[in-house]
Amino acid sequence: MSLAGACHCGRVTIELDRPPEYLNDCNCTLCVTRGGLWGYFRPDEVRIDGDTTAYRRRDLAETALALHFCGKCGSPTHWVALPEYVARHGGGDRMGVNMKLFARDALSGIECRFPDGLRWDESSECGVVRPSEIMP
To answer: Residue 128, by phi and psi: left (phi above 0), alpha (psi -120 to 50) or beta?
Structure first.
């Protein structure tokens, strides 16, 4: 089952080979201010058409990813691991897609997790804000 989504203005479209296994609704400052609801995929499972602009956080000791968004409407579309981060730590086989760009009913039945990214310091497992839910 493939899924199709788009940014607000429709200039960036995303096609997925499958639904995500779960969703993350993180409370870190980046996810809250940019409005992300993340599903995770191998890059070869995602097709993105349209031009995006990338943003790299500068408030962390080490930046791990580039957040892409539509340059016209500003909708966050996806994130990818930075090559320099992957070279040091691995993990380039996963990317995040903003599932808020897809029809709500396409997410029905998928587990939504609520990680506590705001208080996570990368020295231990990330806690949770509240128990997971199944999307209606």
So the answer is: beta
- Which of these, 47, 79, 45, 77, lies nearest to 64 by C-alpha position? 79
- What is the pLDDT, as a whole number, of residue 52? 97
Q: What is the pTM of this model?
A: 0.86
In sequence order, the β-bridge partners of residue 117 are none
Residue 67's H or E segment, with its range, is strand 65-70
Positions of the chain with pLDDT under 50: none
Backbone φ and ψ for 8, nearest 5 degrees, come out as -60, -40
The set of residues, in sequence order, having a beta carbon less than 8 Å from that of 12 and lying 6+ positions away, is: 6, 48, 49, 50, 51, 52, 70, 75, 77
- CA dist 34 → 55, 56, 101 (Å): 11, 13, 13
Tokens of 115: 């990680």
Residue 120's pLDDT is 66
124: amino acid identity, one letter: S
